[in-house]
Design goal:
alpha+beta, four-stranded antiparallel sheet
Length: about 220
Amino acid sequence: MTAMRAQSARFPADQSGFTLLELLVALSLVGLLSVLMLGGLRFGVRAWEKGSVSAEQSTTLTIAQRFVRRQVAEALPLVDPGNTRDRNILFMGGRTALRMVTGRLADAYRGGPFLVEFRLAREGAEQQLVVAWRELAPDLSDIDQRTPMSEARLIDKVRDVEFAYFGPREGGDTNQWQDGWTGRGTLPLLVRLRLDPAPESGRHWPELVAATRISGVGVR
């Protein structure tokens, strides 16, 4: 009897613990909080991934535009040594491709001059804007050789590109944008590149306008 009274004194009736209902409510709240936290975590991961992809695309476009602008600025008004009679510059600008001789390909390349070409290339069902290049002899004696060119992808998932060239028309003195610039005695003043990305790329390509540093008659 004395032992029962001592046990009753140690465990009062008002401290008998949780009821089953209280326990179920607590478990439900914990589950709800876990779901909310998991949903927030997934949202954060998706937002981070989307932001990472967007930043990567923006960086790729910036690098590509900077490279194209640099190459146009480095264009040299050199005459084909095999056709010095016409004195035409080695600059072949079309609507969807541009081929020219530049003084430097990039900071990492200290040689030159270089034959550089921008054009569309197809890989499977997708088109890409690529740059191809080949180092030339200083006297351009190998300009007509069929030597393979190195190639690198600039922008993938491209639907179309459009080059245009600003300068005087042949036989005129008024500067205007033109679809082609081939067989001329001077370089164009400006080169414009409009790129139409494929819808699935999710990209927007700002119009690029680059200036040539040297414009005039051929120097060779």
